[in-house]
Amino acid sequence: RGKFGIVRACTEKSTGVEYAAKMIKTKVSDRTTVLQEIDIMNQLHHPKLVFLHDAYQTDEYVVMIMEVLRGGELLDRLIKRETLLEVEVIYYMQQVLQGLKFMHDSNILHLDLKPENLMLFEKDYDDIKLIDFGMARKFQAQDSLKVLFGTPEFVAPEVVSYEKISPATDMWYLLPVLCIRLSGLSPFMGDNDHDTLSNVTACNWDFDDDIFDDISAEAKSFISSLLRRDPKYDYGLMD
């Protein structure tokens, strides 16, 4: 059972292929958000993005038939590890960036990048996929797209202040994700949501904690580049 629906295993009779059926209970008159997510997923065919095979509606449910991801959340695997090498973190983040770049090239923003939305394809493999496009939005460079939603710990400053968003907004989301991977620390987490959002808007964060002493200059440079509230960005870790 997920946050916004029930997920059940299913098998396509004609092929024998197994899928995951996400069943979202909703009134017919209140399905705009779910149908928008389906429309966006139909445009996102990439190895690092979960694949939507089919979708249909009943009077009670919208059902999304997606590929099965058997590996669980990446965060759960990392929590079980006593140590994690920086090169491993970079490998995971490269995969995230590959999926993110494809989305941005398709004029789509994810807007909900967080550890829970990074899933392993199989238990014994390191391949990951981005999931959950419920907050994703289409965009054009000339648009003044603004949103006011997100997880306080990961949300970008321009979302908090209700300013124009861009692909740089998604890049900001990578900052806390990357810091958690490298250090175990969530950079903007406060005692409550208000404190957390204040830390985000003030960019109240640095490398002073001793745990960052063993992190390479290259990783610190990439993290620092994510702090810019500027639509000019790159996908440096992909190199």
How would you describe what is shown here?
It comes from Trichoplax adhaerens. GO terms for molecular function: ATP binding; myosin light chain kinase activity. This is Protein kinase domain-containing protein. Keywords: ATP-binding, Kinase, Nucleotide-binding, Serine/threonine-protein kinase, Transferase. InterPro entries: Kinase-like_dom_sf, Prot_kinase_dom, Ser/Thr_kinase_AS. The chain has 239 residues and is an alpha+beta fold. The chain folds into 2 domains: 62 residues, 2-Layer Sandwich (Phosphorylase Kinase, domain 1), CATH 3.30.200.20; 167 residues, Orthogonal Bundle (Transferase(Phosphotransferase), domain 1), CATH 1.10.510. The protein contains 7 helices and 9 strands; from the N terminus they run ββαβββααββββαααα. The strands form 3 sheets. Strands 1-2-4-3 form a 4-stranded antiparallel β-sheet, with helices on one face. Strand 3 and strand 4 form a beta hairpin. Helix 3 packs antiparallel against helix 5. The mean pLDDT is 86.
SSE topology:
Elements: E1 6-11, E2 18-25, H1 32-41, E3 52-57, E4 61-67, E5 72-73, H2 74-80, H3 86-105, E6 108-109, E7 118-120, E8 128-130, E9 137-138, H4 157-160, H5 167-183, H6 193-201, H7 217-226
- Unreliable residue runs: none
Task: Give, in spatial order, the strands making up the sheet with the most strands.
Answer: 1-2-4-3
Q: Report how far apart the termini are.
A: 38 Å
User: What general outline do the C-alpha atoms trace?
Assistant: globular
The helix/strand order is EEHEEEHHEEEEHHHH
How many structurally independent domains?
Answer: 2
CATH class of the largest domain: Mainly Alpha
Number of strands: 9
Helical content band: 25-40%
The fold-level CATH name of the largest domain is Transferase(Phosphotransferase), domain 1
CATH superfamily of the largest domain: Transferase(Phosphotransferase) domain 1
Q: Strand portion, in percent?
A: 15-25%
User: What is the residue-averaged pLDDT?
Assistant: 86
Judged by helices, strands and strand pairing, the structural class is: alpha+beta
